[in-house]
Amino acid sequence: MAEVKNILLVGVGGQGTILASKILSAGLVGAGYDVKMSEVHGMAQRGGSVTTQVRYGSEVFSPIIGKGQADILVCFEAMEGLRLLDHLKLNGKVVVNDYKIPSIPILTGKRDYPEDVIEKIKEKASTMTIDAAGIAEDLGDAKTMNVVLLGALVKAMGLDEIDWEDVIRKTVKEKFIDINIKAFNKGIKAIK
Q1: How far apart are CA 22 and CA 25, in angstroms?
Q2: Neighbours of 131 (CB within 10 A)
Q3: Model's pTM, two decimal places?
Q4: Which strands form 126-130's sheet, in the order they lie side by side?
Q5: Where are the domains of the chain?
Q6: What is the pLDDT, as a whole number, of residue 49?
Q7: DSSP 154
Q8: Of 1, 14, 68, 107, which sees the most CB atoms within 10 A?
Q9: The Pyruvate/ketoisovalerate oxidoreductase catalytic domain covers which part of the protein (predicted)?
Q10: How do beta strands 34-41 and 49-57 pair?
């Protein structure tokens, strides 16, 4: 088994960040890793921030990823990724969804959505951009955006050896298995 790896997934309530983390954790446990996962739901039901932290390796003692410790940051929403960029290691990677969800202050006109969010992330870290929302919509189910991002994460982390289709079959509701497997595979192919 390898050293402990740290994955930080960030997004907005309703994007499926937690489901993606549960699928990821189930796959890693099935592959024999010790896995710890934690979730933070800040007003998630109302479109607030959601972060999940997944740590895996031969032995993991804590589920918490501190600042400067994440090997990879997966941004389900661009601004949330920029906000938590300080949790990334100096040589860490970012997978960012080219997708914006305006927060309440932006919707009410009190603030503007920051300009060039993805470019600001790219200035600070090795970044792979993916249009997960567009891919999910092309598949006919916008809700699979989270599993598209999971596929991109798996590719970026080199976790291809795990039977993710089997993990998806065991984790999602039966009627959503096929579309989620398609979404996952599209996410893998979207990362070069």
Answers
A1: 5
A2: 15
A3: 0.91
A4: 34-41, 49-57, 5-12, 70-75, 88-97, 126-130
A5: 5-190
A6: 79
A7: H
A8: 14
A9: 13-188
A10: antiparallel
Q: What is the pLDDT of residue 40?
A: 72
pLDDT along the chain (192 residues), means of 10: 87 88 97 91 63 94 92 94 94 94 77 88 96 96 96 95 97 96 97 84
Residue in this structure with the two tokens 């501190």, named with its chain if needed? 66
Nearest alpha-carbon partner for 144 in 118, 175, 113:
175
* pLDDT value, residue 13: 81
Residue corresponding to tokens 């914006």:
100
Output the CATH code of domain 5-190: 3.40.920.10
Alpha helices in the chain (DSSP H): 17-30, 78-83, 104-107, 117-124, 132-139, 145-157, 164-171, 177-190
Q: Among 151, 157, 138, which residue's Cα sits nearest to residue 16?
A: 151
CA distance 137 to 178: 15
The DSSP secondary-structure symbol of 177 reads H
What is the rounded distance in angstroms from the CA atom of residue 5 to the CA atom of residue 3? 6
Range 70-99 burial, b when 16+ CB lie within 10 A, else e:
bbbbbbbbbbbbbbbbebbbeebbbbbbeb
- Are 99 and 145 spatial neighbours (Cβ–Cβ below 8 Å)? yes
Q: Are 97 and 130 in contact (CB under 8 A)?
A: yes
Under DSSP, the state recorded for 131 is -
